[in-house]
Amino acid sequence: VQLQASGGGLVQAGGSLRLSCAASGFSSDYYIVGWFRQAPGKEREGVSCISLSGGMTYYADSVKGRFTISRDSAKNTVYLQMNSLKPEDTAVYYCAADAHRGTVQAVCLNHIYGLDYWGKGTLVTVSA
Description:
With 128 residues, the protein is mainly β. 5% of the residues lie in helices and 48% in strands. It contains 1 helix and 11 strands, in the order E-E-E-E-E-E-E-E-E-H-E-E. It has one helix at residues 104-109, and strands at residues 2-6, 9-12, 17-24, 32-38, 45-50, 57-59, 67-72, 77-82, 91-98, 117-118, 122-127. The longest helix is centred in the C-terminal third of the chain and has 6 residues, at 104-109.
């Protein structure tokens, strides 16, 4: 069972990146999947989460209107399209999946209490 996050990199402010979270060993269709980030010296925060069907989403206020989460069941992958990137978006981005918390808000806001599966992070660096 594995979640693999990829797509990070160095980008200038105003640029875009698309992160991918590929699940293997299980079907992510049965899990709420979220993206989280941790900047140096800061606590990890929930960025965006998506429901099983993709019909419900949650976004942190800091990324609303700039980031879009989506999922492709055929590829067992969840994406985070990040546009209009800012230097304050610089962080290690992680994806995680959970089948127990029930709502996208619960997964994104209560991740500190533990989620079912975590992937290794991918570094996003936004230069000014």
